[in-house]
Amino acid sequence: MTRTETQVTLIQIDNYGPWTVAPSPKREPDLQTLQSRLYADLSQLVAHHDGYVFFTRFDNMIAVTNGIDLAGHRRIQDAVSNRYPVTVSLGVATGASPREAVGEATANLQAAGSAQDGERTEILRGDPLCEEGAVQIAHFDVNDATSQYTDELNAFEVFRHIDRGYSALLEYMYDAHDSLSFFIGGDNVISVTAGLDRPAFDAAIDHVEETAGIELKVGVGHDLRAGDAGMAAKEALERCRERGTRVEVGASESAGRA
Ligand SMILES: Nc1nc2c(ncn2[C@@H]2O[C@H](COP(=O)(O)OP(=O)(O)OP(=O)(O)O)[C@@H](O)[C@H]2O)c(=O)[nH]1
């Protein structure tokens, strides 16, 4: 199996806090519109290179960028400054675990100055992978969310249930496996993991069921790019639905570690 090495890019809007209140506080719907449009554009720009972006806090987004070099990052950065009244800084790093990678990517930006330093703009710092490393993506989905929740409870109660499950999964995957988990809409969560095997995913699902009462299934993919690993994960998730199983992994995953 190709060695797992996750490349993470921290995308941070430059000096955004001061901008939101200059010369006076900007209307919140305008900020929400800017943030969601920026996420949409970044999602497409990064997907063009077969990477994934997660919206996280919107002013700070985390991308999985295996295969994207510094020139590719610079083009993404330029596209943002050409389209928006704000600019972004990018910190890039690789790690044996996603947690290690995001730690280094963050440190790269923090070393260049504060997120609210008007002089620190359009930083691009880090070392993209010289050699090819693979990324592991796990796509989790709540079992029967439509019949159990969406068609039964009020919309906010559904949101509470899904969010409780997401929080339990996020904490467990970070603490137990140095993995980064992101809510991606509906009843879906993507975890960026590193070489986890079937028993590790089974244990994660058990934990969420025990602590949050939410039943999950997961499809796992492993490939050189996040986009390809993500598609393999979605195909594996479909196999869970067809076979009634709760964990399906791509063929190359069987050699993973617990
Ligand atoms: N982002 C994202 N959202 C999805 C995807 N598939 C489904 N959803 C969302 O999740 C909601 C629930 O869909 P499903 O997960 O297919 O339905 P379910 O009732 O949970 O049924 P099973 O998953 O088969 O147990 C949908 O309304 C969508 O909002 C996906 O691949 N990506």
TrEMBL record:
- A family per Pfam: GCH_III
InterPro entries per the UniProt record, alphabetical: GTP_CycHdrlase_3 (IPR007839), Nucleotide_cyclase (IPR029787), Rev_trsase/Diguanyl_cyclase (IPR043128)
> Which molecular function term from Gene Ontology is one that the record holds?
GTP cyclohydrolase IIa activity
Sorted alphabetically, the keyword list is: GTP-binding, Hydrolase, Nucleotide-binding
Q: Which family does it belong to?
A: Belongs to the archaeal-type GTP cyclohydrolase family.
The job of this chain, per UniProt, is described as:
Catalyzes the formation of 2-amino-5-formylamino-6-ribofuranosylamino-4(3H)-pyrimidinone ribonucleotide monophosphate and inorganic phosphate from GTP. Also has an independent pyrophosphate phosphohydrolase activity.
Q: Per its UniProt record, what NCBIfam families does this chain match? A: PRK02240.1
Q: List the protein's name.
A: GTP cyclohydrolase III
Which organism was this protein described from? Haloarchaeobius amylolyticus
